[in-house]
Amino acid sequence: ILAAIGVYSWRRRAVPAALPLVGVSLFGALWVLGIALEAAAVAPATKIAWFRFQSLWRAPVATAGLCFVLEYASPGRWLTRRNLVLLSIPVLLDILLVLTGHAQRRRGRVEVAPGGPVVAELAPAGVLMAIYGVGLVLVNVAALLWLFVRSPQHRWPVAIILLGHFVSRSLYIVDTARLPW
User: Fold this and answer.
1) How far is residue 42's CA from residue 62's CA, in Å, rounded to a whole number?
2) Across the strands, what pairs with 120?
3) Containing H/E element for 159?
4) For 64-112, how does the pLDDT look when each residue is reduced to its tens digit (9 = 90+)?
């Protein structure tokens, strides 16, 4: 589905918010690929490698999602080169933290739990990135609610996007916290 959305958006890249949606689709597809390959892996080292691979795409998905929402809510207003550079800095830092292992590890603990999933404690830098991600989600929700109130013609699309935010974030929290269904 993400690939289809990405291709569709790429073909309509002249439309405001289409290019950020391509980014969300591309990075999201890579994240989902990492989740699937982690679940399919048998060896603990392979599971950890795919866990780290999927961790690379959290910040890019969240940032591209913010870019999409800002461009959708107010085309051309917020996505200046300066703002894009500023938004890319935390993404690059997160990727660096993941690649060096400092985002998940504290005292070197990244392990495969009994039953299969990878368990990693967040280091302080990982906690800061999680707070950054929550901040992006709050900005997304605020921008979408502003658009919902100000533009009656956008209410249904905004409601669907907000529902998607709620469902995806809820599932992410359940998965990250390893809560039972």
Assistant:
1) 29
2) 110
3) helix 155-177
4) 999 999 999 999 899 999 999 999 999 999 888 888 876 555 444 677 7
Q: SS3 breakdown of the chain: % helix, strand, coil, rounded to 5?
A: 75, 5, 25
- Global pTM reads 0.87
Give 3-60 pLDDT, tens digit per residue.
Answer: 999 999 999 999 999 999 999 999 999 999 998 999 898 888 898 889 889 889 989 9
Tell me how far apart the alpha carbons of residues 44 and 38 are, in angstroms, rounded to a whole number.
Answer: 9
Asked if 99 and 56 count as a contact pair (C-beta separation under 8 A), the reply is yes
CA 156 vs CA 4, 9, 18, 45, 159: distances in Å:
21, 19, 18, 45, 5
Lookup: tokens for 62: 């969240």
d(CA 101, CA 145): 37
Q: What radius of gyration do the chain's Cα atoms show?
A: 17
